[in-house]
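During the reporting period the student researcher (J.K.) took over the structure-prediction task from the postdoctoral fellow and processed the backlog of single-chain submissions. One of the processed entries is reproduced below for the supervisory committee.
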Amino acid sequence: MNRVVCTAAALSEHPLLTHAVGECVGHLLERGGPAPDLVVLGVTEPVVGALEDVHAAVRRLLDPGVLVGVATEGLLGGAQLVERRAAVSMFAVWFAPTPSSRPGAGLQPVRLGTVADADGPVWASPDELAGASGTLVVCLDPDGPSPESLAERLAELAPELSVIGGSVEVARRSGATRLLLDGAVHRDGAVGVLLPAEVPVQLVVSQGFRPFGPALTVTSCERNVVRELGGRPALERLMEAVELLSPEDRSLAAGAVHLGQVVDEPRDDAGPGDYVVRSVLGADRSIGALAIAEPVELGATVRFHLFDAEGATSELASLTPTVGPTGGVLAFLGARRGARLFDVVDRDALTLADRLGSAPLAGLTCVAELGPVGGRGVVHHRSVALVAIG
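J.K. obtained the following structure tokens:
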């Protein structure tokens, strides 16, 4: 096993970018020294034009084994989330050298490109990951091919590979995307790092939903249209479940209802981490059917879900992993959380920091998050995906 000697995280909003970089680099040097095996660097969109200079400075000052750099609209550092203001963050890991480990503790930088297709760009076949195991931490261009198609391709090529990360959130303007990997600048595709299987990691996805009503079996469906649940019209089942809610929760249900499908069947004790949750898009009252955002499997176990700030915070707190004295956590936060969901923009950061104590914590906001549910790589859109190292 690659033993984790140290992790570190730093965030700076200093108005002078050189000072912000210096503050972050100084903290990393104080905590772990030079030459970390991995650094994940983030800058917010207001300073995206300087990312390449920041990246070069970090390479020169820290000399990391693998350096991944991205621009995004929000950065998490400890108990703070900075959105749309100038900021720099860094997350670093140092591993103990072992006789069998390759340079950089066996970490492999990963670049995933795209190719032109009749319908637009698609993912180039990531053949270098064929048969890979371990954990791929990856950051994607949000304007490129769908993360769903990448997750499906990786599942085919490398069934033993766990994938976590997200499509980083950047301003929708020409040239905003920046993905950097060990000195190379990319405007599309994805960049990341492959952690070998012997690196101690925990992967957690908090989707933020809470279930209501009973677990039901899909007894009639066609692609994303669910006709029957437990032998009765799906809409009828939904109305019955809503009637049993509190007045406050019925108001939430009037705004949006979601359907969660158990990934790892059969399960008699499915909990918050066992469902893939998708939106209920509408209903056909004439036949009592529900339209779901993605196809549903016949015979699947499903349950209705609600999403609200209280439930999202409660689930995140319950799923936050425990790390060892040298461990730290890198988070990929759904952009539809933050100020869009909570009355306090830092709610997720505060929740994580409270559970993790003094453990280093850093993160990036994303428009889509990748993380495992029931052992399968799944794309989410309002979740918190965590990789705890050490």
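The committee noted the following: The chain has a mean pLDDT of 90.
J.K. will present the remaining backlog at the next meeting.
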